[in-house]
Structures are given as structure tokens and as C-alpha cells.
């Protein structure tokens, strides 16, 4: 905190830092110099014509007159300069008071029409301007706080509109998530089940903020009112388009994908309105984008004829619907280059998680986007809806769990929470958890610290699976190749000064786990597989 200056000056002859005293001493010095010069010149021109007694008299009385005159001059100058400079001190004190927030501080009265009057007028103008600025700032701040409060309420209302209770059925596993880029967003998802028919939608309103959220609410309401009454996906899309396009003075449009899945006949009909093509996981585990007709977005052209498509959707087939906030998630590097998450990365992630449950797939994708962006602020909402037809995998104990982490030590605590949830899910006791977690943390910390060059962004992926009382952990990274199984074992019985540096971490992991297997994958990943038999 900056301290206010101290203006308590002493205006006396001994206080040399006083402005008046310093100026008076300078005047006295100039006067003394002038006097000495005058004496020298006087004697120079009159020295030969004057007698010595007369010279002494002149010097004596001249010196007395000079000293008296110089003292009088000093007193007068000090008083006069003090009178002139006193308003400056008052201005300085007023400035400190104004800086402390006392904008009504009185200013000294100036009766002369000189620079001091101009200075006072400037101070007065500054006071008035500061008062006006502060009043405007207070009004703006209050308005922003009110708007922020309203946006928070709008966010809660919007999130409350989205369905968060998902069906508990043996023939369907469904989960969805919406993460707005701002307080409110323009993405939407919804679903309705009527007579073993699943109606679902995902959409993206053009634009951001409050206007987009209003159209999002209208679009969702239209879908809920129309689904079931119009059995065809194309009919639902057509009626929604008519309702929005007929009164769309703002020229706002909505991209959307609507599907109708018959859970009895395993048949899917769908209609796409310029939305991202969903990702399909076939029953045999292949991942690809669903073939879709482009069509126009909702709200562009009234009475537009939307083309409907259909495809067989047997059990164990899955579909991921998403908005462009997923594939267009962006990473901006330090040099300004940009990289998008992309469809290839999405399909790769789905293939790795093709056996995972709906909530695990969406959670993994959200994690991967977060790691990929590495702090880059995203401009698009991120919305996903995943559904799998067939036996529900929510409670399947053998399904793998995954977490993806940045190469930062702060991620270790998040990994610990992930592994704790895995152990609790499979009733692994706390002592066993602590022992296993010690090995995992050791290896993950090694990867974070040494796999990637300093300053290079990377990630670590951990997969945990329990089957037949065996815990399998797979740790993957894209760093420098390193095979821990080829490292020489540490001689823990040797004296400290005889041991080689390093290797204790690998020794710890080997001692805790039953097996350790390493491979360098074709796509450039270090893959370390650890197993541990769980004893009841």
C-alpha cells in the first residue's frame, strides 16, 4: 500500500528544506556576491585617491549597512515567498485527501489572477470529473452485477430444462451432457420414450449468449410437444421448422439431428438439419460417422422438405450425437498456431471406449477435450448424447474405466480420486488401495516428469479394469520410448554409497504388482500393462 506523503513543513530559518528558506538563502547569496563585486570594483577605481582612514570608514559602515540590509532582505523574502507558496502546500494536502476518496475536500481560495488560480481551477475540474466518473462506474458496476445475477439465474433455469434423469432399462444405456461456453448457451438435447420408441434430439442454435438460449428453449419445447404426435423424424423436423421460420424476424437458425429408435424392431429413422454427423459404433465394434443428408437448418426456409433416412440398429449398436464444440475444440500454442480436436481423434477415442458405458464415454471425451485444449478458452458450447441399444452397461463390473491427465503433477491427486472410485466399485479394501495407489502414483509421476521434454504439452492415460479377481492397469503416454522391464534391478541390500542413482521407482512398482509388460505401439505410444491378483 502506498503511504501518503507528509506535508508538515517547518517554516523557520534553520529548516533548510523549506522552499521559502532555500529561496531566501539563494537571494542572500546573490546579494552578497553583488555586494562583494561592488566593493572590489569600488576599490579598483578609487583606491589611489582615497586615504586609509576614509577607506576603513567606508568598509566599516558599508559592511554594517550590507548586513542589516541583507538580513532585512532575507526576512522579507522569506515572508513573501511563504505567503506565495502556502497555497501550494494546501493544494498538496487537498490532493492527498482527494486521493483517499474525500472528493468534497475544500480547495484553498485564490484571490490573485495568476498560475495559482489556474491550478485551483484545474483541481476543481479534477474533483468534478472524478465524482462523475465514480458515479458512472458505480452505476455500471451495479448494472453488471445485476446482469451477472440474472445470467446465473438464467443458467440455472436453462440447465434445469435439460433432462438429467436418464432411463433405467435393460435394453437401453443413455446419457447426455451440456457444458455452455458462457453462462448460458444455445445447445440442446432431449429425449422421450413412448411405447418402446425413443425420440431424441440434439441441436445447436446459431449465436451465443442469451438470444441463443431463448431459441434453445423454444426448440426444445417444440420437440417435446411434437415428438410422439408426429411419428416420423422428418415430420417432427418439418413442423419445428415451420413454427420457427414463420416468425423468425431475427433470422436465427438451428442445426439439429432428430432420431426415432424402435427398441422392439431395432430400427432407427433419423433426419438431419445441417448438423454434425453422429458417430456410430456398430455391433461388431467398428466406429464411423453415420451417413446423413445435409438438409437446411431449422428456421431458414419455411415449408422446406426434409429428407428422412433409416438404418438397422441391432443390439449392442451405439450412437454418439454431439455439437461442433467437440470436434472444433481448439488448442492455441504459444506461437499462435491452432489445432482442432477433429473427427479422427473422436473416432479413435470411441474405438478405445467402445465397450464402456454411456456415462463413461461422455466423461472420457470431456476429459480429453480439457486436456487437449490445455487451458485455451473455448468459444463453443459442448453437448453430447450417447445411447447404446441392448444390455445396459451401467452396472457391468468388467467394463474398463479410463482417465486422461495432463503432464502436470497437479493431476496426480485427480488420478488418486479416480482410482479410489474404481476400488470402491469393486470392493477393494483400503489397505490394498493404498498399496496399489503407491505403485500407480510412482509410475505416473515418472511419466509426467520425464516422458516429455520440459515445456512440451503431453498427456497420460490410465485404464483400470477388474475381471476374474484380477486388476489390470494400462498406462499410456506419447513421450520418449522407455522400457522399464529392460532396466537393471536395483540392489537394495547394497550400501547407499554403492547404489546407482535411480531405479527405485521401477523396483517399487515391480515389488507391488504381479506382472509388468511394456510395448511401444505402432502409433508411437508407451504402453505399460500392470496386473495384480485381488485376494478376497
Structure characterization notes:
Helix 4 crosses helix 5, helix 9 runs antiparallel to helix 10 and helix 10 runs antiparallel to helix 11. With 536 residues, the chain is of the alpha+beta class. The N terminus is likely disordered. Strand 2 and strand 3 form a beta hairpin. The protein has a five-stranded antiparallel sheet.
Based on the model shown, name its key terms:
536 residues, alpha+beta, five-stranded antiparallel beta sheet, 17 strands, 20% strand, elongated
Separation of the first and last Cα atoms: 63 Å
> How big a fraction of the residues is strand?
15-25%
Q: Class by helix and strand content? A: alpha+beta
Query: What is the spatial order of strands in the main beta sheet?
Result: 1-12-9-6-7
